[in-house]
Amino acid sequence: MSSPDTTEEGLVEESIESQEDLIIDEERDVLVESIKKDLGSDFIDSHVTPQIDIWIRVTQKAWLETARVLFEKYEMSFFNFLSAIDWKPSPFGRDMDAAIDNTDDEVDIESEMEWGVTGGEKRFQLLARVHNPVTNIGINIKADLEGDFPEVETWIPVYPGANWHEREVMEMFGISFTNHPNMVNLYLPTEFEGNPLRKDFPLLSRRAKPWPGIVDVELMPGEDDDETEESGEET
């Protein structure tokens, strides 16, 4: 039951959640329970959106074993992608966002980390998705990573298509993959310092010139120059 202070948006979210609770997705629920038994204590958490998708979170040491289990036992033979997430709040706040998007008067640089579906405990998480093309069921896998420059086993022995994805994660996030056959940069010069997709990497070019898209903004019908200037848009 909602409280008197519940907003209209909150009521909508509660309604959606209650409707999801009424939907039973036995096939995905059984799959999650089976994977949980296979991985044992290395299985941390899971979430099922009925009739839509599955998320699981596993330990770092079980990252490769999870891939093997999903491929060999559950026939998740299609590799979709592999990437990483840096949950650390940017120390720059929205200072480097486009002026048209920056609506915050004050920047709170002391924000705590907040994790997405299945939660988290560390700054960095690996994220991958695989799919069973026969049952048409996919699964998203997450793993918390230890340390500022984590290392984890490569997925290449199970999913060779992870090769370039892992190189991109190494280059952009500073996460290395043990036993990867060619852990070299994809995009940046070898001597480049830093990892551009880390939240604490300064995007200096955004200070040097306006962010693309905030110049030559056309007025919407009914707007005048004064309204445009107040909203922070440039014409």
SSE layout and pairings?
Layout: H1 8-22, H2 26-39, E1 43-49, E2 53-58, H3 63-72, E3 78-86, E4 124-132, E5 137-145, E6 151-153, H4 162-173, E7 176-178, H5 205-208, H6 225-231
- In the CATH hierarchy, the architecture of the largest domain is 2-Layer Sandwich
**Tally of domains:** 2
Total count of strands: 7
Query: What does the radius of gyration come to?
Result: 22 Å
CATH superfamily of the largest domain: NADH:ubiquinone oxidoreductase Nqo5 subunit
N-to-C series of helices and strands: HHEEHEEEEHEHH
Figure out the total of helices: 6
Widest sheet, order of strands: 1-2-5-4-3
Would you mind describing this structure in some detail?
- This protein is 26% helix and 20% strand.
- It has 235 residues and is α/β, with parallel strands linked by helices.
- The chain has two domains: 17-93 and 113-201, NADH:ubiquinone oxidoreductase Nqo5 subunit (Beta Polymerase, domain 2, 2-Layer Sandwich); 203-235, no CATH class.
- Strands 1-2-5-4-3 form a five-stranded mixed sheet. A two-stranded parallel ribbon has the order 6-7.
- It is globular and about 50 Å long.
- It starts with 7 loop residues before the first helix and ends with a helix.
